[in-house]
Amino acid sequence: MHWNIAAECISLVYLLIIWFYSRKSSLVPSLKNRLFYFCFAATFCAIGFNILSTAMLSYPEHSINLLTWLVTTIYFIATPLMGMAYFFYTIATVFEGQGNALKIMKWTSIPGIFYLVLVLINPFCKELFHIDASGAYFQGPLIITTYLIFYIYCLAAITVAFVRRKQVDPIIRKILATFPIIAVLVIIVQQLYPTVILSGSAATCALLIIYLYLQNKQNSTDYLTGLPNRQEFLKMLELQTRKSRNFTLIVLSLRDFRRVNDTYGQHTGDRFLREIGNFLIKRAQPHCLYRYGGDEFALLCQGTSDQDIKKIVESLTARMQEPWSVDENSCVIPAAIGIVRYPQSAKVVEDLINGIEYAVAKAKDSKRAGAYYCGQEMLKAVRRRSQIITILEKNLEANTFSVFYQPIISNHTGQYVVAESLLRIPNSPLGPLYPNEFIPIAEDTGIIVDITYQVLQKTCRFINRISEVNPNFEGVHVNFSGHMFSQIDLADRVEGIITSSGTPFNKIKIEITESILLENTKCVSEFAERMQKKGVRMELDDFGTGYSNIVSVMTMPLDTVKLDKSLIWAAMNSKKSAMMVRSITRIFHEMGMQVLAEGVETEEQERFVSQCGIDLIQGFLFAKPMAEDEAFAWLRKL
């Protein structure tokens, strides 16, 4: 019998092309990816030994009979093994990350094992094939088993894809169901035309589909830098932690890269990124480098000593302080570096990611160049921050924030005429939380905006309540974060809350800090002017902390300026500071503004601010922040 093996020869070429490009994609050695190479190996063996066996059987006079037996036997093993390999790949894909794929493969390999035993005893029973002394080939009565095993595993792959269809992405599901069908159809054609060998072609078609749609490096590689992307990085991280291998993770984050894009354009910015990526590729060898984010790169170093890590970080820091050049454009692009170690820093992927991002954030907050290492202590801070965010979100959703009020006394009348509303979390799963801890977190996450609206609503209700029993009460000061002025509808929301509460507008005084005034001058000015028209008053908080000056205050429609406690405290020990406070008070009075002194805690400080003619005094000497009912009882009797 003579066979046509042209299709198999062409398939072998295609197979080598797939192998060449797949090896360049640097796939993570996950179970699915290892099984992809198992599919390739099985297909390569099946095609290679098929071609070799066919050549030996066609020219027995040039072959050794025993060697022909051996090559043909390997071919018979490899052919149905292809079906099993593709079925295992389907299992690994469908059950990826669930941990039970290996157990399924173990039990479903039984048909393949029985067939393997049949092939191994075939030289003695000749049930599959027989080669006589002259080199003639004869099919045995159980030859159909070879195709049957292949069909069983292909059908099983289709069944798994169908049964698990709800747990698998629709595109992946279609691919997993399509390639076994194509393979089966090709094998059916071969059975109709026995002299045309197509078994390897069937497997190559399946492998080509898998590679193009599931394994192609475009799915795992960043298009701009050619580096493995964040998805591949997370897979590798998961794999390394599962294997409990020690490693160090270094993330390099470019500082303010948006400035580069704004200055040179997006296209040139991309070229700068490629230049940086090319440098990191060379510096990273032999370690793994990934594009972690838009302007961030991750370096995964396995089994590296502290000294080696120190050298890597020092070389990265030194290079990032030097300029980068693209054509005629040149600029320095500084970077922040974060470091975590497994298992010293954390033992699960989520904690490692949280740790590295926190370390990078700390590095960015620092003005100096260098790296931040996230150890156990920093990781505790990360976890606590995450817990506080959850607490803030739950309080926000349930509207259960506590608002305390600190009465403020008039220096002229001796009466408590106003109060400041202060956000508090006296009870939480972590115990009492203090503003200096949770307010910055609320601002970083943007939660502060909705919290402020809730505080304003509660404040309005408190004003209405106290005004019924104390008509002389002038109102409450409410603190506004700088994040509020990024809201397009801020003025509408504020007016809506005050109006719906039925609270007089002139009993609300909004406090803003000097930094807000400096950073958002136009937005703050427009908001203040609109509020002033409605009767809402504005106050500048923390004056004297070094952000603004008298000129910036003059341009804003302010009612009150609150002197920071540091000015009052400094005046107790410095004549120059005391003279400055007196002068500032006089200037603001001449501008038609009230002056409030905060942080008054001693009688000496109280005498000083009174002598300066300061209008309002706030501090523990007179009243501490109180819960609503306590503040109500305090203020109603005055």
CATH-assigned fold name of the largest domain: TIM Barrel
What is the 3D form?
Answer: elongated
The end-to-end distance, rounded to whole angstroms, is: 114 Å
Q: Biggest sheet: strands side by side, in what order?
A: 10-11-12-13-14-15-16-17
How many domains make up the coordinates? Answer: 3
- Which CATH architecture of the largest domain would you pick? Alpha-Beta Barrel
The computed structural class is: alpha/beta
CATH C-level name of the largest domain: Alpha Beta
Strand percent estimate = 5-15%
The overall strand count is: 17
Largest sheet: 8 strands, mixed, barrel
What would the average pLDDT be, to the nearest integer?
85
CATH superfamily of the largest domain: EAL domain
